[in-house]
Amino acid sequence: MSDISGTVKPLIEQKDRCCPSLRHKEDFFRTLADSLCTLHLAGLSVDWDEYHQDFASSSKVLSLSWYSWQLANYWMQYKYSWYLTKGDAPVEARSAARPVQVKAIRLSGSVHDVVQQTLPDMHNPALLTIAQNHRVNGLTMAFSTPFANKAFALVKYLMENRAP
């Protein structure tokens, strides 16, 4: 019997995997183990308990001796969410914050007449609602788009109006 997966491989897309379960002149267990290893390394979730179910009588847990250095715990124990708070206690969710009054700085055009100059108010109800609804694990995360937009507008203004 020839390897059927070799016949199928040219017919399927490159991203798909085709693994054999039997090969001519190769041990069945070797072929199956290699194929399962390939699928596991490709990210497929293999149910190893199901695979070993028929061999339950020959399965046993080995008791291995401990080395003295293995008895010590060298790992830092996590508290809370390390990715978001770096181990700090999580901040309790507060009710809607009071808007902070920010005084806008007016840029004057010394050479040209400025028709309209506005700075976006970060406490504008529309922007504030968007920011407060952008939460990760209950924490409000400030998105960078309005800040980048402000920086871009400022640099563009300076380049157009302050160039020597």
Describe the protein's architecture and organization.
GO terms for molecular function: transferase activity. By secondary structure, the protein is mostly helical. Among the domains are: 51 residues, no CATH class; 61 residues. It contains six helices and two strands. A two-stranded antiparallel sheet has the order 1-2. A hairpin with a 2-residue loop joins strand 1 and strand 2. The radius of gyration is 31 Å and the shape is elongated. The mean pLDDT is 72.
The geometry reads as elongated
Q: How far apart, in Å, are the first and last alpha carbons?
A: 81 Å
Mind describing the biggest β-sheet?
A: 2 strands, antiparallel
Report the order of strands and helices: HHHHHEEH
State the helical fraction: 25-40%
Strand-pairing-aware structural class = mainly alpha
Beta-strand portion reads: under 5%
Quantity of strands, as a count: 2
What is the number of helices? 6
Radius of gyration: 31 Å
Chain-averaged pLDDT: 72
Low-confidence stretches: none
Strands of the widest sheet, in order across it, are 1-2
